[in-house]
Amino acid sequence: MYRTFRMLSYAVIAIFAIWYLGFSPTGIAPVAYTPSHDPGLTGPFAPNQRLAEVEILDMAGEEGPEDIAVDAAGVAWVTSLQSGLWRVDDREMTHVGRLGGRPLGLEFGGDGALYIADSYLGLLRWTQANGTEVLVDRYDDAPIRYANQVAPARDGSVYFSVSTRRQDPQAQGGTLASSVVDLWEHRRTGHVLRWSPDGLTQVADGFNFTNGIALTPQQDALLIAETGEYRIWKHDLETGTREVILDGLPGFPDNIQAQGDGTYWVGLVSPRQAIADTLAPYPTLRNIIWRLPEVVRPAPVHHGILMRIDGEGQILDVLQAPEGEYSLVTGAMEVDGTLYVTSLGAPGLAAMDAP
């Protein structure tokens, strides 16, 4: 009797495990894709220690200074995971206020206002006199749930990326968690929008997690980071055509920060993971893995990588922190001889002498 009961118990457990791994709802819908070749950390990406000894500027317990902007007076500003707005004067941090939501990309426009891509709230504008204003939070009768980076133009319009139209970072535990879901699904719902006082239009579509964007010095093209495909595009704003200028990166490109001289700092928020590329053609297996505990799913690797490129995608410099001394790197900006490095989750803004 005991042996029969034990065998029945094993059978029930096995049936439940098969049902759970194969058929229980996951809330995601992965599709098959073919990833680019992973060159690994070789060539210009051979590991170095140049980002390993940065100074971490204290943010009074706040974290995640995801982007940085410089105003007309040459003063740097950053935000935090806790929606804080900080002013940076010669490596000294001053808390200015709170914006609400989860601010990501930010950049000052020609009108002196700070434009912000907020992953919870949409496209925002902030001034010291008037505080925060939501410029737009809907597109095509749906909420804008993952605005990511902004690029104000001289004509008063503002380009901004929307990483996904499927995920809701506020409902899914934050931007990092929802980005992992979207990259795992790979459904290419990211796009770039253009806001102006006359309305909102779509500039480019069909990206797997649209991330950093930056205008060229002539403002006739946009550089666009497609995180899920490990590449950077140049989109011609006059013809509407685009071309890949940098492909097969060994990590996930994040922000693209224009330096004003035709070069750009780009963060690779994590190196690539072989398991993700291996499972790319197999959406059913990806669904099964998603049913496993979170601890065994792919997650970002804490290896800091920052690269500098030109407008044609040529790699000019690469800085790394291979042991995660500063990780989840999103981008950087040079200000008065200091390179400030941003991060999705670090406990402060990084600073070092500009290379």
UniProtKB/TrEMBL annotation:
<dbReference type="InterPro" id="IPR011042">
    <property type="entry name" value="6-blade_b-propeller_TolB-like"/>
</dbReference>
<protein>
    <submittedName>
        <fullName>SMP-30/gluconolactonase/LRE family protein</fullName>
    </submittedName>
</protein>
<keyword id="KW-0472">Membrane</keyword>
<dbReference type="GO" id="GO:0016787">
    <property type="term" value="F:hydrolase activity"/>
</dbReference>
<feature type="domain" description="SMP-30/Gluconolactonase/LRE-like region">
    <location>
        <begin position="74"/>
        <end position="271"/>
    </location>
</feature>
<dbReference type="InterPro" id="IPR013658">
    <property type="entry name" value="SGL"/>
</dbReference>
<dbReference type="Pfam" id="PF08450">
    <property type="entry name" value="SGL"/>
</dbReference>
<keyword id="KW-1133">Transmembrane helix</keyword>
<feature type="transmembrane region" description="Helical">
    <location>
        <begin position="7"/>
        <end position="23"/>
    </location>
</feature>
<keyword id="KW-0812">Transmembrane</keyword>
